[in-house]
Design a protein that fits this description.
By secondary structure, this protein is α/β, with parallel strands linked by helices. The chain is 47% helix and 15% strand. It has a domain of 95 residues: 3-Layer(aba) Sandwich (Rossmann fold). It is built from 8 helices and 6 strands. The two termini are 27 Å apart. It comes from Shigella dysenteriae WRSd3. Keywords: Transferase. InterPro entries: THDP-binding, Transketolase_fam, Transketolase_N.
Length: 179
């Protein structure tokens, strides 16, 4: 799950995250996009929670402040989180909102509003992205294409559910949301 500063200010986050820790949901990984900006502006001075301590108190495994713009740091944190089986994990990613935008990076103007055509063009130039809009280079497209993996996962699930349905027809019918 992905959460920002504003998400963690809301009361429901306390309830849900506390329950996840209580239930020991070891497969749950939360990414906290900690950029210090909410829809209301900079959070400094009025959102002073020690988020890491809060989640540790909820019985979560906490991976402290990684560079959220560094793919290798993110991958390493995910692997660490996956190794923890008895509690959920929170990966705190330090980021800059509007990363790459020359005039709006780190500012609340980048939150909840389009950058605008000119700023997008400047950001694309700054980030070295020279492909036309909506064109994905083939190597990136193939690396991120999860259709085959998804089809295999769905097939495994269908087989497991069919076996469960055979063993427990009444319970399976109650739990089958596809009807």
């Amino acid at each position: 799950m992905f959460m920002g500063d504003g998400c963690l200010m809301e009361g429901i986050s306390h309830e849900v995250c506390s329950l996840a820790g209580t239930l020991g949901l070891g497969k749950l990984i939360g990414f906290y996009d900690h950029n210090g900006i909410s829809i209301d502006g900079e959070t400094e001075g009025w959102f002073t929670d020690d988020t890491a301590k809060r989640f540790e108190a909820y019985h979560w495994h906490v991976i402290h402040e990684i560079d959220g713009h560094d793919p290798q740091a993110v991958k390493k944190a995910i692997l660490e989180a996956q190794s923890v089986k008895d509690k959920p994990s929170l990966i705190i990613c330090r980021t800059v909102i509007g990363f790459g935008s020359p005039n709006k990076a780190g500012k609340e103007e980048a939150h909840g509003a389009p950058l605008g055509e000119e700023e997008v063009a400047l950001a694309r130039q700054k980030l070295g992205w020279h492909h036309p809009p909506f064109e994905i280079p083939k190597d990136i497209y193939h690396a991120w294409d999860a259709r085959e993996k998804g089809e295999k996962a769905q097939q495994r699930w269908n087989e497991k559910f069919a076996a469960y349905k055979k063993a427990h027809p009444q319970l399976a019918e109650e739990g089958d949301v596809s009807n």
